[in-house]
Amino acid sequence: MKIKAAILSAMGASRPYSRSKPLSIATIDLDPPGPGEVLVQIRAAGLCHSDLSVINGDRPRVMPMALGHEAAGTVQDVGEGVGDLERGDHVVLVFVPSCGRCNPCSEGRPALCEPGAAANAAGTLLSGARRIRQSGQPIHHHLGCSAFAEYATVSRRSLVKVDPDLPFDVAALFGCAVLTGVGAVVNTARVRLGASVAVVGLGGVGLASLLAARAAGARHLLAVDVSADKRALATSLGASHVFDAGRSDTVEAIKQTTAGGVDTAIEMAGSVAALELAYRITRRGGTTVTAGLPPPHATWALSPVNLVGEERTIKGCYIGTCVPSRDVPRYIELYQRGLLPVDKLMSARLKLEEINLGFDRLHDGAAVRQVVVFD
Question: Which CATH number is correct for 180-318, 3.40.50.720, 3.30.40.10, 2.60.450.10, 3.40.50.620?
Fold first, then answer.
């Protein structure tokens, strides 16, 4: 079938993207679902820093590629062997398909699925297939989703069925921002009632972490970012204290506020400087969680003496250490009960043709979560 999609042919375009247009809106060919695959009509897709990191080359991917990984839509057709979804079902796309058989999957850690990671690196679906073509030439899939498009063929293992009453633009956020941000708090850090928590980096994922820490009963809830607008939004979402990450006295101010540092610091900015800050504001015996994904070449100097002498814990977090089939429905229910108001993270709704402008706003820090909506 012929569909419209946003195609990235080369990384590293100059800014502003609204002028250089790294993402071209093209009519391409989409193949029907093969065995174990599903055709989804995309109804909403969020703009995420993981997409931006491919556009600017911070996270290299095979080219050309149809971008987009945070999305929701409706099932249109299913391939052979898919018996638990049918046409009309509402689904959220998850950007690591889980095979269910490798060691991480068998240990209950599907976010670390080895075949899923290999397929994502190769730009294919979990089966190894590519279902997108342009002028007869194959196009790579972005994280098994390629959701900046009218339709997507994806692995069944990239989908979670969700409540049809949930608006599509809100549902899309649960595929990445909410799954990662909330999971970092409840799965990775395991924040306890009465804990002190700091979130460094207040994009969509970071603010989802802040909402989760509030719902978990954090006693002190600190929000740290260079953007005054994002700090103000964090205050409206329940932060007890906000700090400017750009100030030289921020670490000392946080330590004074929290009597030595926070129990848990969660870094969501994707920079070494942010991770360093998060580590320095973590108290003795505390835990620093990082999910920000700086460029692959970035390194961080850590003092082993400090790590040992203060019994620190540093934990990586990928997709919120999630089990998607378990966590997505749970987080949606918490949203519906008013405990995770993630709809307040929505900055704008865009048309597909406005996507380059949207990535300018994301790069400039002028938006939290923008969503491309397909009417």
Answer: 3.40.50.720
